[in-house]
Amino acid sequence: MPASQPAPSRQPGQIAEASRQLAAMGRHLLARGLLSQTSGNMSIRISDDVICITPSSMPYDEIGPADIVVVDRSGHPVRGTRKPSSETPLHCLAYRSRPDVSAIVHTHSPMATTLAILGTPIPAVHYMIAVTGVTTVPVAEYATYGTEQLARNVRAAFGAPARAVLLANHGLVTAGPTLADAAFVAEAVETLAGFYYRAIVAGAPNILSPEQMAEVMAKYQDKEPAAAAIGAPARPRGRTTP
Ligand SMILES: [Zn+2]
């Protein structure tokens, strides 16, 4: 769903709620092992020109709502005292090219990053890949972190309806209509990457056929958020508004 354009009078409340969600999600994903130290970042789009994003170089267990930075569509800070994430260009370009997503999660989670280092897309090794919206999680070409080139490489590999893309020698980016959905997909891809890695180390994995995946994808249609489709674990508090 495209980001709406809320009346300016509603935005302070939405920014406060998004900031609370981002701070809480940082702790949640840290506890789940998807984030570590200060690596990774997350954002929520309030409107086309109002994006809440995690700060640069702060441990996730120290980030509070007041540390979240608001940037405009070009990534320029418009509110907050912290420096925005170094991957702000990636988030901003993804939002400009993907009106269907309102939240983005970027991690260096271990198994997804291992496959990203191998440059290996994740094929349909398990039906739960359907939560990514596609039957193969692609790999975006390598570029230095924090650069416009990396942002462009991600845009090139991350077309709708994909909700996940590996970043070569770097990590994982996921997206969704809410922060909870994007985080759910990040955790699902980490699980899938672990399955696939263990399977290729042990032998030659069977890959589900296009026909088998078409049946699964049909079952997932009209199930929004993605998390609902496979029985989500306990979801973090809150949802993105609107
Ligand atoms: Zn990164």
Label this structure with key terms.
single chain; 242 residues; alpha+beta; L-fuculose-1-phosphate Aldolase; eight-stranded mixed β-sheet; 8 strands; 35% helix; globular; disordered C terminus; binds zinc ion
Q: How is the secondary structure organized here?
A:
Blueprint: H1 11-31, E1 41-47, E2 50-53, E3 69-71, E4 77-79, H2 88-97, E5 103-107, H3 110-118, E6 139-140, H4 148-157, E7 164-167, E8 171-176, H5 179-202, H6 210-220
Parallel strand pairs: 6-7
Antiparallel strand pairs: 1-2, 1-5, 2-3, 3-4, 5-8, 7-8
The structure holds zinc ion.
Zinc ion binds at residues 39-40, 87, 106, 108, 145, 170-171.
Question: Would you write up a description of this structure?
Answer:
- The chain has 242 residues and is an alpha+beta fold.
- The chain has a single domain, classed as L-fuculose-1-phosphate Aldolase.
- The chain has 6 helices and 8 strands.
- It has helices spanning 11-31, 88-97, 110-118, 148-157, 179-202, 210-220, and strands spanning 41-47, 50-53, 69-71, 77-79, 103-107, 139-140, 164-167, 171-176.
- The protein has an 8-stranded mixed sheet with strand order 4-3-2-1-5-8-7-6, with helices on both faces.
- Strand 1 and strand 2 form a beta hairpin.
- Helix 3 (110-118) crosses helix 5.
- The termini are close together.
- Bound molecules: zinc ion.
Describe what is shown at a glance.
With 242 residues, this protein is of the alpha+beta class. Helix content is 35%, strand content 14%. It has one domain (8-227): Class II aldolase/adducin N-terminal domain (L-fuculose-1-phosphate Aldolase), CATH 3.40.225.10.
